[in-house]
User: Fold this.
Amino acid sequence: MYESRAYSAAGAAAPLALATIPRRDPTDRDVRIEILFCGICHSDLHTARNEWSSIMPTVYPVVPGHEIVGKVVATGSAVTKFAAGDLVGVGCLVDSDHTCPNCRADREQSCPGAVFTYNSPDRHLGGVTYGGYSESIVVDERFVLRVPKNLDPAGVAPLLCAGITTYSPLRHWGVTAGKKVGVVGLGGLGHMGVKLARAFGAHVVVFTTSPGKQADALRLGAHEVVVSSDAGEMAKHAGSFDFILDTVSADHDINAYINLLGLDGNLTMVGAPEKPLPVSVFGLLFGRRSLSGSLIGGIAETQEMLDFCGEHGITADVEVIPIQKINEAYERLLRSDVKYRFAIDMASLRNA
Ligand code: NAP
Ligand code: ZN
Assistant:
């Protein structure tokens, strides 16, 4: 075991602050990674503040962070995929039971024994897992991803969660050329959804509550932008979408978007608001529409997404910050004031 510096929260109302956490020495299949960048996902904030207490209560202290890019510095004796010096990524998953039907079908995110990167039981050290707001992490090589060499590492970090969380449902629901796709919320997930849906050839419409994001939405790849408070503009799209991806982190009216779906259209929730959202069933009955959810993606699909982004030169638009600015970044995230993902430069922790 060794110690690593990290930023942790001691309670739901506590700011994140410098702390020291234990990390295991690499076992045979483990890779030790020096973290270069870690994205800030809204799930980090939900967890740090215990907003999902009824589903996944937070165990304190918590070290969030599941959009990790770093360099391999040591490998266990049985590691075959990686060597010291490799640029690698770690997302939301660090282990699973490897035997259940979901694991056998490359859907580790739905394994009953899935171990998440933070706030999950730690099978090695006891307690809970600690995430990427830290200097280094030790992960089973089966949950470590290859990072395309042509991409900027800071912009790659958010692909490990925001990228795969939008890639997976877009693929699952058959988003290709000729499909009309809506993306609700232009934040970290939303801006990746726009870039990916555009790269898949779809006609992309962004729905935003922020009039100031309209020009960016077009620059990021949207064909059209609708400010969702404009009832007239919303009505023009009624009954017309094949697929809508809802990335909103807070309470909002999903019925307004269900009504924009065409026959057999699907709305997938990836946003995870704290409280339940009311659904008007009639919006689903007429038009045989469906409402579903999606959780990140499996490891093989995450690698597929990274390779796709490498081939197409896709990364997140990041604002790189030192870790000392983390609490300010959380407040700005709540105000939808980030273009479009914060990435922590971990040199700021290493040199602190
Ligand atoms: P984010 O960067 O904060 O983006 C959320 C966006 O939602 C905001 O930029 C804003 O976009 C819109 N929004 C915020 N509050 C709103 C409100 N009250 N009404 C309507 N729109 C609102 O967050 P993120 O990191 O993309 O994460 C989004 C959600 O997905 C979070 O709940 C997160 O926990 C969840 N998530 C789920 C998964 C999964 O596997 N399913 C994975 C990662 C994250 P506009 O300014 O454009 O309106
Ligand atoms: Zn995330």
